[in-house]
Amino acid sequence: MNEITPTPAERAEKLKGLGSSRKRVEDVRFTQGKGNYVDDIKLPGMLFGDFVRSPYAHARVVSIDAEAAKQVPGVVAVLTAADLAPLGLHWMPTLAGDKQMVLADGKVLFQGQEVAFVVATDRYAAADAVELVEVDYEELPVVTDPFKALEPDAPVLREDIADQKEGAHGARRHHNHIFTWEQGDREATEKVLAEADVVAEEMIYYHRTHPCPLETCGCVASMDKVNGKLTVWGTFQAPHAVRTVASLISGIAEHNIRIISPDIGGGFGNKVGVYPGYICSIVASIVTGKPVKWVEDRMENLMATAFARDYWMQGKIAATKDGRITGLWCHVTADHGGFDACADPTKFPAGFFNICTGSYDIPVAWLAVDGVYTNKAPGGVAYRCSFRVTEAAYLIERMIEVLAIKLGIDAAELRRKNFIRKDQFPYRSALGWEYDSGDYHTAWDKALAAVGYEDLRAEQADRVESFRRGETRKLMGVGLTFFTEIVGAGPVKNCDILGLGMFDSCEIRIHPTGSAIARLGTISQGQGHATTFAQILASEIGIPADNITIEEGDTDTAPYGLGTYGSRSTPVAGAATAMAGRKIRAKAQMIAAYLLEVHDDDVEWDVDRFVVKGAPERFKAMAEIAFAAYNQAIPGIEPGLEAVSYYDPPNMTYPFGAYVCVVDVDVDTGQVDIRRFYALDDCGTRINPMIIEGQVHGGLTEALAIAMGQEIAYDELGNVKTGTLMDFFVPTAWETPHYETDWTTTPSPHHPIGAKGVGESPNVGGVPCFSNAVNDAFRAFGHVHAHMPHDHWRVWKIAHDLGLHG
Amino acid sequence: MIPGAFEYHRPETLGEATGLLSQLGDSARVLAGGHSLIPMMKLRMAAPEHLIDLAAIADLRGIAVGDDIRIGAMVTQAELIAHDGLAAACPLLREAALQIADPQVRYVGTVGGNVANGDPGNDMPGLMQCLGARYSLAGPGGTREVAARDFYISAYETARADDEILTGILVPHPAPGTGYAYEKQKRKIGDYATAAAAVTIGRNGASVAMTNLADRPIWSEAAGKALAAGDAAGAVAAALAEIDPGDDNRGPAEFKRHVAGVMLRRAIDRARARMG
Ligand SMILES: Cc1cc2nc3c(=O)[nH]c(=O)nc-3n(C[C@H](O)[C@H](O)[C@H](O)COP(=O)(O)OP(=O)(O)OC[C@H]3O[C@@H](n4cnc5c(N)ncnc54)[C@H](O)[C@@H]3O)c2cc1C
Description:
The complex is a heterodimer. By secondary structure, chain A is α+β, with helices and mostly antiparallel strands. Chain A folds into 3 domains: 8-35 and 504-647, Aldehyde oxidase/xanthine dehydrogenase, molybdopterin binding domain (Aldehyde Oxidoreductase, domain 4, 2-Layer Sandwich), CATH 3.30.365.10; 43-140 and 218-295, Aldehyde oxidase/xanthine dehydrogenase, a/b hammerhead (Aldehyde Oxidoreductase, domain 3); 308-489 and 652-801, Aldehyde oxidase/xanthine dehydrogenase, molybdopterin binding domain (Aldehyde Oxidoreductase, domain 4, 2-Layer Sandwich). Chain A is built from 20 helices and 35 strands. Chain A has a 7-stranded mixed sheet, with helices on both faces. In chain A, helix 11 runs parallel beside helix 19, helix 15 packs parallel to helix 16 (569-596) and helix 16 (569-596) crosses helix 17. Chain B has helices at 14-24, 37-42, 77-82, 84-89, 91-97, 103-108, 111-116, 124-131, 148-151, 221-228, 232-242, 253-273; strands at 7-9, 28-31, 50-53, 63-65, 68-72, 134-139, 142-147, 152-154, 157-158, 165-172, 179-185, 195-202, 205-211, 218-219. Chain B is globular. In chain B, helix 10 (221-228) packs antiparallel against helix 11 (232-242). Chain B starts with 6 loop residues before the first strand and ends with a helix. Chain B folds into 3 domains: 7-53, Uridine Diphospho-n-acetylenolpyruvylglucosamine Reductase, domain 2 (2-Layer Sandwich); 60-172, 2-Layer Sandwich (Uridine Diphospho-n-acetylenolpyruvylglucosamine Reductase, domain 3), CATH 3.30.465; 180-271, Enolase-like, domain 1 (2-Layer Sandwich). The longest helix of chain B is centred in the C-terminal third of the chain and has 21 residues, at 253-273. Chain B is an alpha+beta fold. Chains A and B meet through helix 5 and helix 20 of A and helix 12 of B. The structure holds flavin-adenine dinucleotide.
């Protein structure tokens, strides 16, 4: 026996398992500039691809003349749709069941669309040649407004499917209509609306924006003609799905394709989809026999790769006079751009937008979403949120404010009155979800107490008075939000992407000396998986997190998984990790019992060891057990210590949070100063509080960007007006306010460790909170709702329209 | 975001530089900090075949505070900010320079490039007009001086001939006790002005200039006169009568006009408060 016996708590601390604010192991390389991103990959003889893109939003491509381009020294090939057509690769399937042109096939549908792919020995030659490809366009009428796109005489955008009455998600009722997705009970909801004491109604636009990750999208494709193997390094949030899709569309057997996601510089949904650049690089590599790199620049990223949001949401909310919500009605016109390339689970063409009843016990609801084609870039990805969940939270959290104004009830009180109560969980919502767990009242009370809510309201009322007396030109706004996320897609029974069930996986190997490697089907893009998944495992198998390597992103070594987006890694792959860990522990128990010469049931788990029940001095620590697994012939037990788990989650998880934002608005300039931002998050079991805080800070900052200025704007001709970082708002430290973070812990009852996911909550809750604060500042003057983004001139316009400029 | 091909020249004397410029003609552009020119080249909105880098010409560097203040064209915005003698002699220069872009841009961007560029978004031109500065130009035919107030014709069009190089900026000392302010509204760090106003008020009169509210900086003589006479409202009205903002992503002209008034009013208030 040891002389100094560490207590179980001391031993647990050494593991740096669940609850430890362990430093991010990734940061050692990132902070030294030693990360390995796609553009760092350099292969011998590598060629570079670059796109000729359409300057027009809608035009016929009459002819393409690449002769001059081919004369540029260093140019190897110029690919057009005509070159891809014989391979059947001039179009590709989208994740949403539509198809998309890889290179313009007769026409273009948005500005920046890929028209030709130039391949050259260096980037400079490729860029020069791009300038020399002569494309003869014949301009066509442009539609950038989804409502106009549905008018009877609107121009036909998708001539390829103009006569098709059925789409991937049911009937199409117009040549520019994609689908209608309906949920809930329309008749019952409209009856409630008709009979309600009060109905608040508002059109709420969640503008088009873009995830704009620090690293843009790109890949290196390398076809080895000798062994027939295609390797693609790329910015992929779902490497296995890319492998399967690549195999299906190229005809190359799946075992001959290897997809590698190296370090990824942020994804936020932008890197879920499959882009023409990937296909063209692969084809170019097959044609030339050389590796081909393609990395888009910032303007291409903003203009052509997947956007987010662009939802016109008409909401109606019914309530009794005293503020009990009785029904919610919502119709969304969803602008999908020229192709439907949303990245949602197949059966959910509007994602999980039907979480739009939010945190409230709303007895009936109805929702319909109409997807529409316009002359804008395709996309519609979940930008730091689960599928369309930020849109849903924005709708309900704005509607609550609108209703509070109409009822003359304090918005905090209105929320409290309608929250789903703790004893109602698991709670079945009117639009079909089963919320796993929650304690909304406790979180709300904690948040309001933390910010001194009553005092804020008193100060705000004083401010309005001084404003009216002419003593100040600044108004004060208090933004409230209580959001419920739905993450962790998802149960295979209803969640799949292109037929691939949305389970995830973990494979663990324990090495003889008691360290380990775990491989997962997910891929970190900044979330810190190498840090946190090791922590989950440390707590499950008693090996210090520091001794566990986490590896992701290589389809030749990682078990099959659906990747990282929609806050699904911890709920799904994290669960798989815990489950695989438990398999390890089960075998370790048998080994320990054998070594201790007792029956399997006579040992019990104690942090990092199995101890004989009732005799804690007799134990086998995990390191000893690991060694025994490799050097002892144990009757009835195979050598080695490995496990794999494929986890099909029984349900989604439902993180929630209570946010409060206080702003001071300069009525004369439209400038908004964020005085205070308080964020309480409940993500169930907290794996690494430091990483949670970092994720919350990052998510709130992206929410700030979206709410306060970030947008992809088009003019009537379909020109992108915000194609550079001068006009596309990405906050720096200067614009970013101080955040106060807080938490409650309500574990998920169905997740092995009770964790729910957190990376996206702050975006889901943050956007409505900032927006509510700005709108609230003008409430005293009769203002109800203004669309985001709340940049200076739009805020100024609220004041102007209210006559506050005298 | 890759510029077209170009030849790079790095002359060591002003004579060599002007020689190259007249020899190469239209196909050449001088390069200072490159923080306006290179973005334009990457967008292929500018495609000079020759770049004449002024970085090695010692004569274009340095700040001298004498009878006048002389700022060499190749002085970076950061050097201007860091120069104590200059901050004491003409604090408005420093206050305005600190509102340009961000530290990264200011370390490389030059004062000469900023005033020579001719982009109405640049902050220095309006500032120099407000201060009554003069620009020294050197060309094949010798040197000359042009007042900042006469220099700007329209966007990217200035009084500088294509074969001339701007060598320095001469700023008169403001009279003792002159109040000053530069007020700029921008959407974020690193942004050009939605509207900006430069104001000085002193014993010798007042001066008012506005940035990014027309196709060139606007120095308003009438506004200066009104302000010198103590009529702040009249000064604002006079300046607003001379600007001609356009719609862009920062907002419609109506909004900019309003903000221009607010910026100018605030600049006047601060300048007055600082009068000695
Ligand atoms: C992100 C960003 C934000 C910015 N924000 C601001 C801002 O808020 N306010 C602001 O004022 N500026 C801003 N700028 C511009 C910056 O200040 C530039 O540095 C400046 O406009 C040009 O100076 P330069 O030395 O970089 O000149 P360059 O880019 O090298 O040259 C600009 C032009 O002037 C010509 N030129 C340069 N020097 C001379 C000379 N001595 N004689 C004749 N011609 C010459 C060049 O040929 C070229 O046409 C910003 C730039 C960036 C990249």
